[in-house]
Amino acid sequence: MNEAIRQVTHVQNIRYDKATERLYIIDQTLLPNEEKEIELRTVEEMIEAIKMLRIRGAPAIGICAGYCMYALARDIDAKDNEAFYRKLQIDGELLGAARPTAVNLRWAVGEMLDAAKAHLKDDRAELLEALYRKAVDIHEDDIAKCTAISEYGLSLLKDGDGVLTHCNAGPLATSRYGTGQGPFLLAAERGIHIRVFADETRPLLQGARLTSYELQRAGVDVTLICDNMASMVMKNGWVQACFVGCDRIAANGDFANKIGTSGVAILAKHYGIPVYTLGPTSTIDMNCPDGAHIPIELRDGDEIKNLWYEKPMALPEVKCFNPSFDVTDHELLTGIVTEKGICYPPFTESLAALFKDKK
Ligand SMILES: CSC[C@H]1O[C@H](OP(=O)(O)O)[C@H](O)[C@@H]1O
């Protein structure tokens, strides 16, 4: 494999060093200007890193949460495993509340607590080893899922296609290859030419700072556009599909993704362009009946007014509305690409079929 592509697809966005028992992440708020690892030691540092998007992207947040729960468990001083479990639950509640929309965060915390509960009769060392194995399983499982998602996504494209994407759903947001952008990296590995139009994605610019950074380094033909240029790109006939990630998929196929995604889907519907969301089944919340029930994170207005300006705008008093996500109605969606295959409407049935064997 081309080394430049490998450095992108196999990025170490989250790294648990078992020899030193230390957890590291790449601080994504510094990208693309600086690629710097930071260590996460305390629950406060972990929550801050998730809240401030130093680690971000639904699957990556879930993977990080797995290692965080293991690292926190190692620091728990408890007279017996029942007391240990109660303390780990408290840490899990704090961590799980760091960001409300991406279901992967609470899913991973729950998986780790279930693993702890299953080993309460073991001695502490065995319990901790089981937790470490579970964190590694979550990570390795995501690598396998994203690889499969990227294969299914690539099956929808042909050489020379143009695709518009929004926000960042590449390796930095996941584990390997990614979801929304995974097919583009797989295509690059195989010499398939896909032309990608990446929305810069205001206000935190995940598309400009991360997607164009990843794709350009991998040699993918990527064009960075402002969010308000998507309509013209579609009208010009430059894209044959839209691929986006997801943070939570409801049981009827409505899904939450970065703010602006629903606008992309509405534009695509107008121009007759198919829209796919790509994500692992851990992002599907079958307990959430529709998009109206997905909690949407509201963020600080300074991210709009001041974050990327040479100097803060002289608008200290102006009100801001800064939802981090919006919900795309399932009627606007062509398909949902998961590691188990591509789901098509009616999504209530096709999504339920993914879980029919779940005990
Ligand atoms: C592969 S999930 C990526 C998903 O997460 C992003 O949100 P954020 O950057 O706030 O974590 C965005 O919604 C992406 O589509």
Automatic annotation (TrEMBL):
GO terms for molecular function: S-methyl-5-thioribose-1-phosphate isomerase activity. Belongs to the EIF-2B alpha/beta/delta subunits family. MtnA subfamily. InterPro entries: IF-2B-related, IF-M1Pi, IF_2B-like_C, Initiation_fac_2B_a/b/d, M1Pi_N, NagB/RpiA_transferase-like. It is an enzyme of class 5 (isomerase). This is Methylthioribose-1-phosphate isomerase. HAMAP family: Salvage_MtnA (MF_01678). It catalyses: 5-(methylsulfanyl)-alpha-D-ribose 1-phosphate = 5-(methylsulfanyl)-D-ribulose 1-phosphate. NCBIfam families: eIF-2B_rel, PRK05720.1, salvage_mtnA. PANTHER family: METHYLTHIORIBOSE-1-PHOSPHATE ISOMERASE. Its EC number is 5.3.1.23. The keyword Isomerase applies. Keywords: Amino-acid biosynthesis, Isomerase, Methionine biosynthesis. The record marks 167 as: Transition state stabilizer. Pathway: Amino-acid biosynthesis; L-methionine biosynthesis via salvage pathway; L-methionine from S-methyl-5-thio-alpha-D-ribose 1-phosphate: step 1/6. It comes from the Bacteria.
